[in-house]
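in:
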């Protein structure tokens, strides 16, 4: 019985010790600076030109879809593929950068289904 109480006591102390550990959080300024650097690197990976297609989601929820026409130190320009209208976006305003590589998920599924169906229709 003493062993049971002692094991419960040790278990409780371990759990309380883990729960009371402070969580190290970075200050808001450092976090935002790191996010801006990440966005800059993502835009740099895309490159510049008509093949650098992307969908940019801003922090306010608006989206810009097109290609990266110019990338600067504080902002970059996205041109719409249909209208060729330029949109200047600051790196600090960006929430997410999505690459548009060509095929959509639906096309990938259709290709996979057609490959799967193809061999089964052959006669044995």
């Amino acid at each position: 019985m003493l062993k049971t109480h002692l094991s419960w006591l040790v278990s409780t102390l371990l759990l309380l010790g883990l729960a009371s550990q402070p969580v190290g959080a970075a200050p808001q300024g450092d976090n935002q600076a790191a996010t801006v650097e990440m966005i800059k690197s993502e835009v740099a990976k895309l490159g510049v030109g008509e093949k650098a297609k992307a969908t940019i989601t801003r922090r306010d929820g608006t989206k810009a879809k097109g290609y990266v026409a110019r990338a600067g130190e504080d902002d970059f320009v996205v041109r719409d593929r249909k209208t060729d209208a330029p949109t200047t976006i600051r790196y600090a305003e960006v929430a997410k950068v999505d690459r548009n590589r060509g095929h959509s998920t639906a096309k990938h599924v259709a290709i996979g289904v057609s490959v799967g169906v193809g061999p089964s229709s052959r006669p044995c």
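note: The helical segments are 2-19, 28-46, 105-120.
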